[in-house]
Amino acid sequence: MQRFIYILFLGLLSASISAQQYKKHVLTKDRLSIDLSDGILNIIPLNEKSIRVQYQIENVKEAQEFVLINKPNVPSFGLKETANSLKLSTNTMTVAFDKKTGVLQYSDKSGKVFLSEKANTRLMKPITIMGEPCFVAEQGFESPQDEYLFGLGQFQDGFYNLKNTTRKLIQVNTQIAIPFLVSNKGYGLLWHQYGLTYFNPTNQNITLVKNAVNEGEKREVEVTTTSGTQKVSQQQSVYSGSFSVAKDGEYSLMLDLGDMDSRHLVLIDGIDVINQSNLWLPPAVSKLVQLKAGEHTVKVVCKSSNTPSLGLKLSNDETVFNSPNAKSLDYVVFAGNDTDEIIANYRNLTGNVPMLPKWAFGFWQCRERYTSGEHLVSTIKEFRKRNLPVDVIVQDWQYWGKYGWGVPKFDETHYPEPEKFIKEIHYLNAHFSVSVWENLNKESEIGKEYVMKNLFIPNSPWIDIYNPETQKTHWNALNKNLFTLGVDSWWMDATEPENDALKGKQTYFGLGDFYRLTYPLFVSKAVYEGQRITNPEKRVTILTRSAFLGQQRYATINWSGDIGWDWDTYKRQIVAGLNYNLTGMPYWTTDIGGFFRPGSGQYKDEKYHQILTRWFQWAVFNPIFRMHGYQTETEPWKYGEKVENNMRSMMNLRYQLLPYIYSEAWQISKNNSTLMRPLIMDFNKDTTAVSQAYQYMFGKAFLIAPVTAANVTEWNVYLPKENAWFDFWTGKRFEGGQTIATAAPLDKIPVFVKEGSIVPMGNVIQSTQAKQDELEIRIYTGKDATFTLYNDEGDNYNYEKGKYSEIVIIWNEKNQTLTLANQIGNYKDQTTTYTMNIKWISGNENNGVVKTIKYTGKKVVVKK
């Protein structure tokens, strides 16, 4: 069969791929199949607001289904045919097929078109890779001028709105590729491919020539940039070229170095349009540039070991996905009244989000690295001594010592009797997380079992995690050597796997090129499923560096990798995190202060202290609150009393907000909400709000506006329309629809609360082990408000069995009454009596009026 397909592909190479003429159609109980001249176009309703499109030649398609794991009942749908079209409709959306052009167009119940394919852009070009037949699959979509596009994962290029940008979707350190988009036009788009994918690929290649260096010439040269003269070392090369464009306009420029680099530097006509440096940077980066018609010169600087390519694409109001190693063309369209509904629909098909343990929302203390069990314990003791709240301490790599690289086992030389130091960490009301890799030493005792069972990818240091036997063996090794000792959480590092290592390799499922994006999904699967079987009472918590579609179902937290530390890097993390959260992955964090830091001088460098403090303030309002740094003592007291005090006050605030945060986390698991919310989620009709790249909602109440520049005492904040807003720190009220200059001293991050919000805050505690039975219930008046206060046992799965409580709190603006409804549900060791201090925030002289009540689970009505 495979030989037949291969011969077929060779025959098709000369065929006209774009001539996809309509021949006939067949309607079955679960799909509409349209026979075209070259293949079959299947339109498959997955539910009332999700439609899958598959274009196949000779019924070739990907045999594996990694993403769309939930199979709901086929929704009712109907078909209407005219001379020119076929229209398949569910109760809420319609997809129309144009018999003449082959274009698919999507509309809502009212008939409004929200997405349309672009004519003559459906492409299936037969090719081969390493002797295996496949296709180049490409599809273009119309993109109106006023469209905003978000998602695609986590990238370091600084783009927030992705319209017209170009990206190379691969998994590498600091970059997470997730081919899922959401639009302000009311749809989500999942490009269902597992291999390398290009988003808006360039179509004009620029020839680059490596500058020759004469024998004996000094290799270190200088390049002038807008940030000053920069030296090019002997490990780097300079490439030059020229190009012309036919018309004035905006162009997407993409540099692809082929491998990771430490420098992204592109100069056009002597001006640097791309200029980034870090020890690790992704292979590809893009930029939108304005170019005049005519000739231009270009210069590129990169590692001498890399070979750069440079391409251009004129912005033309289209969205294109291109996968060069595909079995078929496959995508899913999600419709929704808002972004929450789109993401809920996506998760319902790809897997819902389990609850993380309560302690995961506390502070994570991490550094590269702790060197012994005693070092870990003494650090937690110092946190407790200084009244610095903390819930997790993390052991980074190399604890394995004599056992060899990546072996999940403590070297007893520095970690004697590991179960004892872990028990002491637990005694100090903290939890323990440990770094684990998938490229363990093959010569080690543990590694030999993998070798004996042929569980490594051939000619690779990485285990073949796709193999079910590898997943079982890997979990057994982690369980025997770590989990049974008391490890609480997993730091699955380098899960891309590092450096795009699947390319050209054979895996359990076949050639790795077809599965380059999916390795982290299976690492998470192995650990999540292994732990749940081993100990179904303990919630799985996985911190991992990479992700793929559907990974939210495995209790994962992602972080932005080995980033730098300057202001530009910090700003790029904000937009990276917002776009990442719009791919349906709700738990994300960064290395506070950057992974690569400014060396030993950082502890007394006030300029660095400023960015560290601002980054720390922002991290309080990240889903996960975590410190880390390369070869750095990251503990707050290492930076002096001023920094420590600022950090303590912000840590205290994080812990006071735990009742709010944990309740919002419950809404993620129960109702598919999102905690870190780009403004498209709540203010899609306010185009100024949607365009804000450095502001977002934290839950439904808080507007966060992190300070991203040095030496400021005021910060401009846009307050979205149709709401009034209260300064969190002062209670002052502002009307929405305006930009205000707000105070931003070094010890404060600008935070506003939307009118019609209820925010529960607890007393200051040092860990989540302590009860917060005294709450301040803040009512931000002006509109009706509702909040559901949630609690459970904190670190098991009894909530799945109904062991939790909800207290619905309702503010009636007209009657000026607050109702605390009867508690719903119960759980072991629950708080039976809350002391609740009710505080109304109204922005006038009555600001802060307080009434205290005792709540015992029975309905209470409080009049202001």
UniProtKB/TrEMBL annotation:
Q: Where is the Glycosyl hydrolase family 31 C-terminal domain?
A: 673-759
> Per its UniProt record, what Pfam families does this chain match?
DUF5110, Glyco_hydro_31_2nd, Glyco_hydro_31_3rd
Q: Which UniProt keywords apply?
A: Glycosidase, Hydrolase
The residue ranges of the DUF5110 domain are 774-840
User: Where does the record place the Glycoside hydrolase family 31 TIM barrel domain?
Assistant: 354-663
Q: Does the keyword RNA-binding apply?
A: no
Tell me where on the tree of life, at the top rank, the source sits.
Answer: Bacteria
Q: SUPFAM superfamilies from the xrefs?
A: (Trans)glycosidases, Galactose mutarotase-like, Glycosyl hydrolase domain
The family database entries (PANTHER family) matched by this protein are listed as: HYDROLASE, PUTATIVE (AFU_ORTHOLOGUE AFUA_1G03140)-RELATED (PTHR43863), MALTASE-GLUCOAMYLASE (PTHR43863:SF2)
Q: Which family does it belong to?
A: Belongs to the glycosyl hydrolase 31 family.
Tell me the protein's name.
TIM-barrel domain-containing protein
